[in-house]
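Late entry, written up from scratch paper. The run itself happened at the end of the previous shift, but nothing got recorded in the book at the time, so transcribing now.
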Amino acid sequence: MGVNLYPLKFAGSCTFYLTLLAFNCLAQKEVPINIVLKNVTVRDFKAPYTTLPVLVEKDESRYPALEINEQTTFKKDRRTSLPLANLKQGMRVVVTIDYLQESNKAIAKEIMLDNGYYTTTTLEGIFEDISGERAYVDGQTVTLVKDKKIKGQEGWKGKEFSKFSDMQLGSSLRLRGKRDLDGVINVESGTVTPVLMADDDRMLRKGMSLVMKVNLDEIKIGNKKSIPIISARSLQAYITTIGDKLIPNYLKKLPLDHPDRVDFRFYIANDELVNAAALPDGVVLINTGLLKAVKNEAQLSAVIGHEVAHVLYKHHTAKMRNSNDWKGVPAAAGIVAGSLAGADAGAAALMLSEAVSKMSMNSFSRKKESQADRIGLYYMVNAGYDPREAAAFWLGRIQEAQEKIDEKQMKNAGQALALSLTGNDSSLEDDEDDKEDEVSAPVSNYDATHPKLKDRFVNLNFLLATTYSSVDYSKLKTGEEDYKAFMDELTGKKKAPAAPGGSTDARKKPKGKTPLKQKSGATKPAATKPGTKK
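Output as recorded:
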């Protein structure tokens, strides 16, 4: 602050001075606030590497993107630095930033991989496929460390395997190893167990066949549940062709009458709810509401692959073993075996119908939902689809749900302010309060048992940064044009092509290049496999 004196002369010999206080309004510099952001997921990172879009678990609206400059460092740990270009979509990191509050800018100073990112991990799942020395288990890429062995269990007890190529596709593996920078898990120990159709699986699938009837325009489950379906031949063919491409090769090669084969069938349910469902006998239902929510064929393949995984990983059977509904059907085994007759068979069939009807539409545990997401991602890549679209679908759901929450919160805040200004101190009443599940639940839980939307997005991005970190995305497709044509027909705008690849029959395979034969006897699509270098 300065003081200025200005002389003022009046008549006579007197001179007065006017004192003015002058304030120097100099621009103040912003003082950076040092903040450590945890649980940060990289959304994208491309040349010229000046902006890092991220998803932050908290305060995401404040830090949608971080600025990168010459002083920004990227580290695997405290002692190991990495080039910034090694940052990939989906990586989980901890970021130290300088936050400039006035200009609302966040400048990244240090980016470090999350402590648990590349460390010892365990996994359990089906041995889906093999390419060279790399195997694909539980939707992840694995290799066996030299001189390490996998021990056989149950029917293979006493056997040891030093190579994945000596093991049987479709078997169950439990593995332990360490993930490297390429996202591949280097296995140091594990077990392998044969997978056969168990009595529980057979009973559940046979039970479904007894109580479920598919008609031209509906699927009936027992006497209480009816699901309207869209039966237009070309629309059905399109959905079926996508679904067929997602079925793993180890299952496709089984004869039609093989006891371990699953006959998948795909239907469009005329329901505006954004949802899909799988039944234990291989029926997959995709709601029209979900078809309107996805943007392309790749996103749809992620959803269908998720449902296929539920069936192949026998999530229904695991759920059945703990189901009070199923325990309430003492004669279920007798119905399936055909040992009951007359009134006893009729009463037991009714109980079976009600139990299966309830179970078929309920959700699975969050752990199994996450596994189905992971396996579905592998299936879509194996079928030639871009896995980044799966993450894009869930990001869109997050943004849509958040907009609904923000709108409701602003509405409530506005009503509260209006009541306050008018002197009305009565409690705020909102007719929508009882509909919390429709608004807030999609962000917290997709439903009561599904993982949080953000968790699903983060988990898928983790796989993009590891299992699929070196996939050549230029060889994978999104199928936007074909999907638009399909949706134009579904919504009545115009007639769509019969099916991807030119098939007009819902059970025919799409045309294209002849798959390459592998030593295992399974067929391979032309698409790049997870973990394949560009």
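The longest strand covers residues 120-131.
(Scratch paper discarded after transcription.)
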